[in-house]
């Protein structure tokens, strides 16, 4: 599982490195496609949407808390932090299954594009300790993420969004 | 290895991983259907160790004709375990199981599980159709053996990649024993004989 995750991370960083290389090549060459400039949008992960209940309320905390989901939201291209973006979070925790309404909650990003929401401890289900996050508000392309914890004992998990204007 | 040690060893190889899984702290956060689905999977893995021992007549008191008869009944129980495993997971989280069955899951282990399931179903179907279709013994044995070998290997990969209720050590031991028992039975029974004859 750890190997899988690091591979994904390496893959993503490799992807951005390629984008960077493409940008340099684009500047030095004659062709300069607009998409090659800067930050590429985050693609939806496989299984990211599973057990999503749209429209969970914005909450101070999901359930009793004790675990932190954190992350950032930026705009594709220039990488500008996006504030006031609604991110919905859900997971199988010590207090409920993924598709239980009490397992789902949403939060808004701060001025620097960061978000953090306290929630109950995530426990391994379907073979991996993982969480789900969604951006699904319409101004940008919808993105569903499904990050995996490197250890089931972790008490934090983070996920970063780069959103493409819709 | 002395043969009369085989029964206690088999009992331990199955009872320990089952006991570890049945007392996992993760069960506290799961509902009964999910718990039953998980344990059905553990039981299915345990049956994969029993089946080659029965087919080859290794177990004291169960020589080949009697062992084979039991092999058929336990094979049917294995199918039932897999149906409960997949069905229970489906009830617990339908989208995750649909992803797995369509090979679109983010988890690498689910692919191995689904391949193992289809290989097992094919092996069982072959067993059911053997007499009605009057399969040639060499072809039947090669086909059934190839399918169950695929089932055992894919199941071991499936189980080892999962972070779940089973203990890592007892799970690894059970997987290794199932692979070893299957390999020994295939070699002893010369299940590949039909291939050798064709070579000459």
UniProtKB/TrEMBL annotation, chain A:
Tell me which positions the record assigns to the signal sequence: none
Xref: InterPro entries: Intradiol_dOase_core, TAT_signal
User: Could you tell me the superkingdom of the organism this chain comes from?
Assistant: Bacteria
Check the record and name the SUPFAM superfamilies matching this protein: Aromatic compound dioxygenase (SSF49482)
| Example GO molecular function | iron ion binding
Its protein name is Twin-arginine translocation pathway signal
UniProtKB/TrEMBL annotation, chain B:
Residues annotated as domain Ferric oxidoreductase: 40-153
Coiled-coil spans are: none
Q: Which domain of life is it from?
A: Bacteria
Task: State its location(s).
Answer: Membrane
> Which residues are listed as membrane-spanning?
37-61, 73-91, 111-130, 142-162, 168-187
Keywords, A to Z, come to: Membrane, Transmembrane, Transmembrane helix
Topology versus the membrane, per the UniProt entry?
Multi-pass membrane protein
Q: Tell me a GO cellular component.
A: membrane
Q: Name one Pfam family in it.
A: Ferric_reduct
Q: What is this protein called?
A: Ferric reductase like transmembrane component
Q: Which organism is it from?
A: Paracoccus laeviglucosivorans
